[in-house]
From TrEMBL:
One of its GO terms (molecular function) is protein kinase activity. Pfam families: ABC1. InterPro entries: ABC1_dom (IPR004147), Kinase-like_dom_sf (IPR011009), Mito_struct-func_regulator (IPR051130), Prot_kinase_dom (IPR000719). Residues 136-483 form the Protein kinase domain. This is Protein kinase domain-containing protein. It comes from Acer negundo (Box elder). The lineage of its organism: Eukaryota, Viridiplantae, Streptophyta, Embryophyta, Tracheophyta. CDD domains: ABC1_ADCK3-like.
Length: 483
């Protein structure tokens, strides 16, 4: 009998670790989220016993700070999908200020994959060594996000730099585990606390994030959006990187390098140049940035239906002359014409302050609601503004889904089409950017001409019913033209 081969304890350890890692993540998630959630529920009882309003506000601020540290620690330690969760909830209009201060620092802060692993992935995907393919390849990544990291490099025989996006090995299984845990928590929350179809939203997140692991699909999406924006404008409102089509695989994507600064660093850059942050030059630059993004998204969503669905700050670069570059096309959405036109109708309803039309649009979109209040139509309209406009309703400065005065408490959303989540998330991210830039505006008002054109071309709006003159903030005047 031949002797048995020696046991490879390292291999056994690695196999056991990979098998039990999803269970460990699930355990960590539930322990931490239960701690945060019960902390708020206990606090709600305690604060209800305090009658002094100022004392209540101070108590809430302290509670938010405690929770912010716990949420930050969970998202930072677990990484992966929870970095995306931090991007969604860490917005000035959606989360308490203490949360925003903590979570905004998590953009593109995922741990980097070691270079030797990156090298193995690239050589397997490209079929050649890094030294054969590149004249120069920066070992340290420019940034590392939840799914991939990016390196600056130069191909052999070329004169310009490229960006190489490389997927973190094994990340897909971990993120799918995270999403399933979040779905279970969403089901619990919508039954106990929030009258909103959260589960459908998490199902759409699962579908959309599943697409992000295929870089060939992302490359096609980038080229499609680039072609659309450059064809529909004399000058595209945003810069879309050019893909190197012969250098794309499922886990590696190469594109042109674009020089710019992250939008989160805009304030520091303005100060560094000696420009008054509160002056006219700074205000004009911020307005141009928001104008560019607003026009690009209005055209993508309402005219094409195919749009970049992830405008969080980590995906936006500011180039020379306040030019905006839009990066990362892993999350895109292709709205069916029926939903695209129904949303165009809702845009007009919000822009025209028309509650009746908003109610009709909700039904057309397949958003089923149940009322728990007398002034149902007005509350439904307020909910539409809260969900689908960058300008919050009068008197609302922050979304408070747990508050008894919240429209979500008064108008329960029993069914929410999964495909609309990308629109909802995009509008909320744009709102977060506008709040961060200090500009209060309504995207529905700005998108009205595009929505009218979409409905007119579909035969749903007569020429005589199109508004010829619409009041807009001064920095948007003259932005739209007939194409």
């Amino acid at each position: 009998m031949p002797p048995l081969p020696p046991l490879d304890f390292k291999e056994i350890q690695d196999k056991l670790s990979s098998r039990f890692r999803p269970l460990q993540r699930s355990f960590q998630f539930w322990v931490r989220v239960a701690d945060i959630y019960t902390g708020y529920k206990v606090f709600q009882l305690r604060v209800s016993l305090v009658k002094d309003v100022e004392k209540q506000e101070a108590m809430w601020e302290r509670q938010h700070e405690v929770a912010a540290e716990k949420i930050y620690a969970m998202c930072s330690d677990l990484g992966g999908f929870f970095l995306k969760v931090a991007q969604i909830i860490g917005k000035p209009d959606l989360a308490p200020a203490a949360w925003v201060r903590r979570l905004v620092t998590l953009c593109d802060r995922a741990p980097a994959t070691p270079f030797d692993t990156v090298q193995l992935v690239m050589e397997r995907e490209l079929g050649q060594s890094i030294s054969e393919a590149f004249e120069r390849f920066d070992v340290d990544p420019i940034g590392s996000a939840s799914i991939a990291q990016v390196h600056r490099a130069r191909l052999r025989g070329e004169k310009i730099d490229v960006v190489v996006k490389v997927q973190h090995p094994g990340i897909e299984d971990l993120m799918m585990t995270d999403i399933r845990n979040l779905q279970a928590f969403a089901l619990y929350m919508q039954k106990i606390d929030i009258k909103f179809d959260l589960f459908s939203i998490t199902k759409e997140m699962e579908k959309q994030i599943g697409y992000e692991f295929d870089f060939a699909r992302e490359a096609d999406a980038m080229e499609r959006i680039r072609h659309f924006l450059y064809k529909n404008n004399k000058k595209s409102p945003v810069v879309v990187p050019r893909v190197l089509q012969d250098k794309v695989t499922r886990q590696v994507l190469m594109m042109e390098y674009i020089d710019g600064i992250p939008i989160l660093n805009l304030g520091d850059e303005i100060a560094k140049r000696g420009i008054n942050p509160g002056g006219k030059i700074a205000a004009a630059a911020k307005q141009n940035i928001l104008k560019s993004l607003t026009l690009a998204y209005g055209q993508m969503i309402l005219k094409s239906g195919f749009f970049h669905a992830d405008p969080h700050p980590g995906n936006i670069l500011i180039c020379k002359g306040s030019e905006v570059a839009l990066l990362d096309y892993g999350q895109v959405k292709d709205l069916p014409d029926k939903l695209r036109l129904a949303y165009a109708n809702l845009v007009l309803a919000i822009a025209d302050n028309d509650p009746i039309r908003a109610s009709e649009s909700y039904r057309e979109l397949g958003i089923n609601t149940i009322s728990a209040c007398e002034n149902e139509q007005q509350e439904l309209f307020k909910l539409a503004q809260t969900m689908f406009d960058t300008k919050l309703p009068p008197g609302v400065t922050m979304l408070q889904p747990f508050s008894e005065e919240s429209s979500i408490k008064k108008i329960g959303v029993q069914a929410f089409p999964e495909e609309l989540f990308s629109v909802l998330r995009t509008v909320h991210l744009l709102r977060g950017l506008s709040v961060g830039l200090g500009i209060n505006y309504s995207c529905s008002e700005q998108w009205r001409p595009i929505a009218e054109e979409a409905l007119y071309l579909a035969g749903r709006l007569k020429d005589k019913d199109r508004k010829t003159k619409v009041h807009r903030p001064s920095f948007f005047r003259g932005l739209y033209r007939k194409e």
